[in-house]
What does this fold into?
Amino acid sequence: IGFEVDDEDPSKLPKSLASYFAVPGVRDLVLKFIEQYYQIFDSDDRRPLGAAYTEDALFSLACTFPESGPGSRYTNIYVAESRNLKKLNNSDKRYQNMIRGRDNIIALLCKLPITTHDPESFTVDVPIAEATLIHITLTGVFRQLSDRIPLVRSFSRTFVVIPQGSGYCICNETLFVTTATIEQQKKSFKNPVPSSSDSGPSPSVTVPTTPASGQALTQ
Amino acid sequence: MAALVEADRMQVLSACTAAENFTKLYYQFQDKGRHKLHKLYLDEGKLVWNGNPIERKENIQKFFEELPTSVHTITCLDSQPVNVEAVGQQSTILVTTAGFVLFKDRKSPFQQSFLLTAKEDKWKVVSDIFRFQDQITV
It folds into this structure.
């Protein structure tokens, strides 16, 4: 006679689903924003991204990288700016490493290595899309031009977006950067990504696009 | 001016402390007391777990109770006060984490993002987004 023990099987984990949008109507707005954002982010001039942030937006970056090996190369800037509270106990550092204001955010974004993101790796989750606030998380992979071997890196980015003027702007953002898993490396960059040089004139960020008037983001 | 900077600093540092206290409880409940998890969510809280949407704290509770037992290790934590322009006087913070979770013998890196709001003197989860770094497709 045996026991009825918990029959635990990791395969019982619910299946992963693709991007989720709490309000279907917000899908196009968010995807358009992300597309435009990364067109600029992956170019050699990130300054036009200023238009995507509120004047007093907050931004912080955190990373975990191996201490040696290829995954540790060209990560100094991330490590220097990292606001991982698990490692940063000093109050002054915790305060300083939070970047305040559009100009300072752009200055930091311009200091980060030049990148190419794989849009096919992007997953977007938007649990809240109200007229007053949108909570967006974006995950995916990228490469850095400075990496001699095209090392794949992984990121997760959270945006808090609010209405501003006639459109929307980012008021809070956290960016997490780490090395890609073997699975991510295998699956990424399957399709050639156009290099930033053939993307034509740099687009203006129109995140600030309003959905048709009267069409509130709420259902 | 100095007073403003000091108030700003206090707000930033208290968001850090709240994030540390919250994540300690949250992952402790995930691993060793799932029945208590609902206490951390707003009644109308929202969870998106690897793309699966779950609304309301009682449904979130039920969802978590059906997952295999877990051991979470948090390697990265960040937090910011959410701009007053977005939330007015309603104190709200953004908390993001990264780490590994072990479900039985499967160890997966994950990232998570929370919005917490103060309700009757307690921080409550408004929205919670969880993603494995690798998608599970089976």
Summary: The first helix of chain B runs from residue 2 to 32. Chain B touches chain A through 54 residues (CB under 8 Å).
